[in-house]
Each structure stands twice: as C-alpha cells, then as structure tokens.
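Fresh eyes needed here. I'd like your take on this protein's tokenised backbone:
***
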Amino acid sequence: MNSTRIVSFISLILIVVISVAGVALAEERLVPKIENFIILVDHSGSMFLTNQGAIPTKAKQAKDILSAMNRRIPELGYVGAIQIFPPSKTLIGPEQYNRNSFGGAIENLQEKGKIFGNQTPLGRGIVDLVEVLKDMPPGKTAIIIFSDGEENLDIEALKAQEALGAEQREINFHTVSFADKKEGRTVLEEMSRVSDGISVEGGELASDEVALDRFVKDVFYLVEVLLDSDGDGVVDEADKCPNTPRGITVDARGCPPDSDGDGVPDYLDRCPGTPPGVAVDNSGCPFDSDGDGVADHLDKCPNTPKGATVNEAGCWSLQATTLYDSNSSYIRTEAYPLLDEVASILEKNPEMAVEVQGHTDNRGTAKYNQWLSEKRAEKVKDYLVSKGIDPSRLEAKGYGLTQPVASNATEEGRAQNRRVELKRLR
C-alpha cells in the first residue's frame, strides 16, 4: 500500500471515529507553516539540457512545475520572491504572495538558453539571496531551489548555505532536483537534510499530481481540522455557547436566540416576552417571591400569604359582588366559605396583621361610596373576629372610589373596582 493510500485510509478512520464519538467534522482550515519563501531557479547552461534524454528541457520542466505549484499555493499572507541565477536577478518580490502576480513572473522564466559557457555558480546564487532576505519580515523562511545541483564556479553551495545562517532567522532549504549526475543529486539532498528541508525529484513532481500536492502542503501549510462538537454549524473555537442541543438554530457566535434578552435562550424560555431588565429564573420566568402567580415586577402587594386569592395586581382581593348584595354591606351567606378561607390563612399565620380595605366603583356620590366601603370593611372584620381572629390583628378601612384597579367606563371594570382587599401590615 503506497503512502497516499495509507494517508487516505488513516483519514477515513479518523472521520469514522469522530462520527462515532458524536463529534461533527465542521471544516478544515489551512494554517501557514512559514512566513516567507524564496523560489530560486537555476538558469545555468546545464538546465537548458534535457534530463537523461527526456523531453522537454530541465528548465521547461521546472517552469511547468512552478506553474502547477503556483495554482496550489494558498494565499495565506506569505511574503514571497522569485530569483533566478546566473546572473542573480529578482523576477518578483519580496511582496505579499498573490497567485496572479507570481503566475505572471513564472511565465517569464526561460525554457531555452545558452548552454555552453553558461556556468553554474550555485553557491553564488544562494549567497545573493541575502539581499532578498533583508527586505523580508522576520519569521520562518523557506528557500525552494530548482536546480540540477551542478556547481562549477565560485562558492560551494553548502558553504553558501551556511553563510545565510548569519541572517538570524529559521531557514529551511527545499530542493527540486533535476540532477542527472550523482554529485548534483548529493549536493541538493544534503542541502535539504542539514536544514530540515525536503528534497524531491523534479521528474516525480512533473508526473505525479499527488506528489506535487504533498510537496506544496509540506512546505507551505498545515491542515487544521476544526471540530463542531455540538453540530450547530459554528466551530468549537468560535462557539460562545458550546453544547447547544441538536436542531436548535444559532447565530454566528453559536448561541441560540434569546428574543427577550433575559439570558435564557428561547428554546428553554417558558416565559417569552419578559420585559427588559426583569430578573428571571433558569426557565426564563420572572421571580414570584410570594408564589401568588403574579411576577414580582408586576406585584403591587408583595408577601401575600400562601393560598390567598389575588387579583391581577397580586393583591389579596375579594370581589364585592360575591360578598354583598347591591348597595348593601351585609355579607351574603354564599360568601361565608370564601371568608372562612381568609380566616384559615390568618390562623396559619398568627404573626400576620392585615388591613381590611373596602373599595367601590364611581357610581353614586363620593360620600356615599366612602360610607359604603367603610361599612363593608367593618363587616368583613366582624366576621373574621367571629371566627376567632384576634381583632388587634385586623384594621378596617374604607377607601370609597379613590383607588380603582380598572376603568369605571365599563361594567367589567366597575365590577373589579367593587372589592375588598386585605393588605398585609406585618
């Protein structure tokens, strides 16, 4: 089994393991392995020969490989340059890598040229890269050499490579070999070996796209698998709300919508539409401290005793239409069970004292309504005393028509206003 098939098989196993573990494979991200790169192309006479009789020339093969590489190099913010020798000449850069710009420079590479008398100063070509490096930002740098490794002039390539070490930056030499002699192949392989670089055969890259893909990846980038553990479409590293249940819609931060802004997502919120600023519990419902069914922010009568019947305002209230006949303060016998419940609540809370409040609607004069409300409050107090409640715990007071809880413009509103409330005093 070749290496490509092994990698594919391992990747398949990884995907299966991830799927079984319930983790969604969201996407892949390319991460640059280097900050800078220089492509150094040998244009000496030997590169315009064919490699062991093959067609085309080595220079043509190098150009074609570079074109194919350029189509594969991702634009990840690298600063790059292309240099040829001899003589040393910069075709492009140093500048931020752009596929179109570098493609144009590659098109200008020669495929044919002078063979005899065009000697190979490989070492000098490497030393001249010092000037290119000076214009590059700090950071890891890849130097990719396209050459047949033949050197017959000036500085030895390996010594030139050592000279670049004075640049105080991490440099890896990667070599694409078109050598048809053992000596040239050895020089290129050694340059890569001593700098933890990669050495490949040009013929392999020209004929094997998988090998070319692998070379570009090994030099330029890592593939980082970004997981989306909760499967909400937002990768883990960007997910501000991990572990969202499957199927729940989320925003760009990976968080479920919270329409009322109470801090409880809609899919958990049992009380949607809570007003801004109102404190809520884990289910998204406003607190109801006295348990009367009216949330604290709406409750005008907090601390109502357990079991008390309350109105929409959260106040312990008994409708007058239930207690009395029209224009009467005498309690109807049908209302006794209702008042017995009040007495029972007071018996269970012996420390409690209440104000028995009488209220009316606006029909009739204010004076009459004041008198009627006082009489009705006193009758309720008398009944509770008859059931054993200490009179010191009860204070009867009439408010007439002064404190409506609803509009007096409708019969329904007037009925709500005719009431007896029990306000807790302690």
In short: The CA atoms of residues 42 and 147 lie 5 Å apart. Residues 1-22 have pLDDT under 50 and may be disordered. The chain is about 30% helix and 20% strand.
